[in-house]
């Protein structure tokens, strides 16, 4: 997917760079942004001239619909730099497709490929020196679209802003992750927006997650809203369980995000000869497996977190913990995936795309 913009892109370069003030060895996730951003507005039924300009705050009408009705979507992607200083994206076509599915679900206009992918390529070229080399370093990419049309009538906006911002990244979760299985709150419901990367899906998690944090848990394993028995996602990630030697994860649905890391790990695990099953996993099954020691591992998987091992879980006020096995699937798959992404091993899947 080598897309370049045919519409002339207006580029204004920053006069100074912040790069020398950044400690790339101690980055908090999503806290530092590069010198430039990409922006394209949708007005009068059409996408306008795309722009790359210095990263800076901008103003909107206080009645813009994004503030009142949360008409907003985003993606999470990553870029990597290889030993020869070439920059690579990981499965950008998948993020592009999912972004436009989210747009459709949220009654927003689709973003053309030449704006999404073409704009991203140009932005990465301009801020190329910000992309750090080495396994564990990446450039987190945040494309997003917000409803900018003014007016508090509750209907879809007629104006939108699509932007891409870049944030150099290391690990998302520092330290161990313990989770609590949701018994009351829900992340998503059938017919809702759980499968879209809609901003409100994340805001809706903040309150229950804060409650969980107070009890010493970093994240929640979300369950199905109807019965709270099926395990669906872990916080902001898809979730995998290893029972004996089988790797299990829930099928995608209207409630579950079709994670790109999730589907990549399933393919990699199969290639490694690991037995995988995509099926509903019940909370009761997890408890049983923890009790008879067949539950070997739980881990979350997502673009930001990559693979985040989960040390233990709480369900119905009981806490269960696993001992990390010597042949950890989480460690094996993380090493395979990040080496492929960082171009330190051969990409036999054809997932990496040069900028
Ligand atoms: C990602 O993994 O890219 C996500 O979208 C999760 C985000 C909340 C950091």
In short:
The modification N6-(pyridoxal phosphate)lysine is found at residue 197. 23% of the residues lie in helices and 30% in strands.
Helix content: 10-25%
Structural class given helices, strands, pairing? alpha+beta
Major pleated sheet? 10 strands, mixed
Distance between the first and last residues' Cα: 9 Å
- Low-confidence parts, pLDDT < 50 over ≥5 residues? none
Query: Would you report the number of β strands?
Result: 20
Beta-strand content estimate: 25-35%
Rg estimate, integer Å: 21 Å
What is the number of helical segments per DSSP (H or I, 4+ residues)? 7
3D shape: globular
> What would the average pLDDT be, to the nearest integer?
95
Following the backbone from N to C, one meets helices and strands in this order, namely EEEEHEEEHHEEEHEEEEHEEHEEEHE
> Which molecules are bound in this entry?
2-OXO-4-methylpentanoic acid
Protein name: Branched-chain-amino-acid aminotransferase
Function: Acts on leucine, isoleucine and valine.
Modified residues (N6-(pyridoxal phosphate)lysine): 197
Cofactor: pyridoxal 5'-phosphate
In words, what does this structure look like?
InterPro entries: Aminotrans_IV (IPR001544), Aminotrans_IV_CS (IPR018300), Aminotransferase-like (IPR036038), B_amino_transII (IPR005786), BCAT-like_C (IPR043132), BCAT-like_N (IPR043131), BCAT_family (IPR033939). Its EC number is 2.6.1.42. Its cofactor is pyridoxal 5'-phosphate. The protein is an alpha+beta fold and 355 residues long. 23% of the residues lie in helices and 30% in strands. It is built from 7 helices and 20 strands. It has helices at 65-69, 92-105, 113-126, 199-214, 260-271, 283-291, 329-341; strands spanning 10-11, 36-43, 46-47, 51-54, 72-74, 77-81, 87-90, 138-147, 160-169, 177-181, 219-223, 230-234, 237-243, 246-249, 275-278, 281-282, 295-302, 306-315, 318-321, 352-354. Strands 1, 2, 3, 4, 5, 6, 7, 8, 9 and 20 form a 10-stranded mixed sheet that branches. It binds 2-OXO-4-methylpentanoic acid. Residues 76, 202, 236, 302-304 line the site of 2-OXO-4-methylpentanoic acid.
């Amino acid at each position: 997917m080598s897309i370049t913009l045919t519409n002339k892109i207006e580029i204004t370069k920053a006069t100074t760079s912040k790069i020398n003030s950044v400690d790339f060895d101690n980055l908090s996730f999503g806290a530092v942004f590069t010198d430039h951003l990409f922006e394209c507005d949708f007005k009068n039924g059409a996408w306008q001239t795309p722009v790359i300009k210095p990263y800076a705050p901008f103003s909107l009408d206080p009645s813009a619909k994004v503030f009142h009705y949360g008409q907003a979507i985003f993606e999470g992607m990553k870029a990597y730099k290889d030993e020869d200083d070439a920059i690579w994206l990981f499965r950008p076509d998948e993020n592009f497709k999912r972004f436009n599915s989210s747009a459709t679900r949220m009654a927003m206009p689709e973003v053309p490929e030449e704006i999404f992918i073409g704009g991203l390529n140009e932005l990465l070229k301009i801020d190329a020196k910000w992309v750090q080399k080495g396994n564990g370093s990446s450039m987190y990419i945040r494309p997003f679209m917000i409803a900018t049309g003014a007016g508090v009538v509750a209907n879809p906006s007629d104006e939108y802003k699509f932007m891409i911002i870049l944030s150099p990244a290391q690990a998302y979760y520092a330290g161990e992750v313990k989770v609590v299985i949701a018994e009351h709150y829900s992340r998503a419901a059938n017919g809702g927006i759980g499968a879209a990367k809609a901003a409100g899906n994340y805001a809706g998690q903040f309150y229950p997650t804060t409650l969980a944090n107070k009890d010493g848990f970093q994240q929640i394993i979300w369950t199905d809203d109807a019965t709270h028995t099926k395990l669906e996602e872990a916080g902001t990630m898809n979730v995998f369980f290893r029972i004996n030697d089988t790797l299990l994860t829930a099928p995608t649905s209207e409630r579950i995000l079709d994670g790109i890391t999730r589907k990549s790990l399933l393919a990699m695990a199969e290639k490694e000869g690991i037995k995988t099953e995509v099926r509903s996993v019940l909370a009761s099954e997890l408890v049983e497996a923890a009790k008879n020691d067949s539950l070997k591992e739980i881990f979350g998987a997502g673009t930001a977190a990559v693979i985040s091992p989960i040390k233990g879980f709480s369900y119905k006020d009981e806490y269960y913990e696993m001992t990390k096995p010597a042949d950890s699937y989480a460690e094996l798959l993380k090493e395979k995936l990040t080496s492929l992404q960082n171009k330190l091993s051969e990409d036999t899947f054809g997932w990496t795309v040069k900028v």
